[in-house]
Amino acid sequence: MPEALGTAVSAGPAVIECWLVEDAGRGQLTKKPAALLLRQGAESLLPRPDLDPELYLKVHAVLTVLTHTPTPRIRLGEDALLDLSFAYMPPTPKATTCLAPGPPPFGLEWRRQHQGKGHLLLAATPGLNAQMPAAQEGAVAFAAWDDEEPLGPWTGNGTFWLPAVRPFQEGTYLAIVHLPYLQGQITLELAVQKPPTVSLTPAPLVWAAPGEAPPELLCLVSHFYPSDSLKVEWELRGGPEGSFQKAEGQRWLSALRHHSDGSVSLSAHLQPPPVTTRQHGARYACRVHHPSLPALGRSAEVTLQVAGLSGPSLEDGVGLFLSAFLILGLVKALGWAGECEPHLDWDP
């Protein structure tokens, strides 16, 4: 008996490339390339020279369940909207006339599978007075047929809304649509993320004398999720001949700090080596990579100032202090001389 095994979607949304596996006898199997062509109505099939025309099979889809968001990525604390739509085509016109006019009643279930445990989040039977369990975690589903035409096909909506998602709510979501004697389902992979904020201290300047090491740099990576796949890099930008290189020095990471919303924070430390005058104006940067960030990540930087090469040096400061002291003494001396000068009184 032939068996179709889907492997990839290539040639547009209406063609699914697959393999056709047949029993060749004596325990052997043969595999031939095949394609599942999705079309509506009585459209003619375009010939495929790479496929055997003798193996063309017609398959009528009665119930179709699909989503436009198979792998949603939701920011921590924001609402999740999982798209779901379905369509029902009666197999024959006679089957339609045997039923009441309009779309048939249906049931909808949303379940979550996470860390080996399954949870029923919501069950609904629109149009039926069945007793259903209460929805969990504030979940809401927009379960309804889109139209009430007497004859099919019909389309419906089962979109799922979950408010203010938390880390424990990520995982595999299973949507099941029940029709009389029919069932269709689809899975979605929900990932929860939160990008980190990055800050670097001391900022915006760090001072060091030639031959001395700058103070320890502290990079705060705050309130991110998930906690794994985080990478911190230290860079030295500028410096001699405007080079861009990996920063040298001793580095280490702190333990994770957990927050009430499920996010975490940590601090990265760098103790740079002694600096030279050629590194004046260079910038130390802390770059963070995380699945929630763009490919280049996010960074913060501080500028290195070598003492004596910018601004007043220590000798300049001492000279200014002595000059100010001498000027102040001269002003006081002139004031004292003015007070001691004799005044002559003239009688009219």
UniProtKB/TrEMBL annotation:
Any one Pfam family match given in the protein's UniProt record, by short name: C1-set
Localization terms from the record: Endoplasmic reticulum membrane
UniProt GO cellular component terms: endoplasmic reticulum membrane; phagocytic vesicle membrane
Gene3D superfamilies, per the entry: Immunoglobulins
Bilayer disposition of the protein: Single-pass type I membrane protein
Keyword Acyltransferase: no
InterPro entries: Ig-like_dom (IPR007110), Ig-like_dom_sf (IPR036179), Ig-like_fold (IPR013783), Ig/MHC_CS (IPR003006), Ig_C1-set (IPR003597), Immune_Resp_Modulators (IPR050380), Tapasin (IPR008056)
Listed GO biological process terms: antigen processing and presentation of endogenous peptide antigen via MHC class I
Stored SMART domains: IGc1
Entry annotated with the keyword Glycoprotein: yes
Occurrences of domain Ig-like (ranges): 196-303
Gene Ontology molecular functions: peptide antigen binding
Leader sequence residues: none
Keyword annotations from UniProtKB, A to Z: Disulfide bond, Endoplasmic reticulum, Glycoprotein, Immunoglobulin domain, Membrane, Signal, Transmembrane, Transmembrane helix
Main location: endoplasmic reticulum
Protein task: Involved in the association of MHC class I with transporter associated with antigen processing (TAP) and in the assembly of MHC class I with peptide (peptide loading).
Subunit structure as annotated in this protein's UniProt entry: Heterodimer with PDIA3; disulfide-linked. Obligatory mediator for the interaction between newly assembled MHC class I molecules, calreticulin, PDIA3 and TAP. Up to 4 MHC class I/tapasin complexes bind to 1 TAP. Interacts with HLA-G-B2M complex; this interaction is required for loading of high affinity peptides. On its own or as part of MHC class I peptide loading complex, interacts with ligand-free MR1 or MR1-B2M complex, providing for stable MR1 pools ready for metabolite antigen processing.
Protein name per its UniProtKB record: Tapasin
Organism: Camelus dromedarius (Dromedary)
The organism's taxonomic lineage, starting at the top: Eukaryota, Metazoa, Chordata, Craniata, Vertebrata
Gene that encodes it: Tapasin
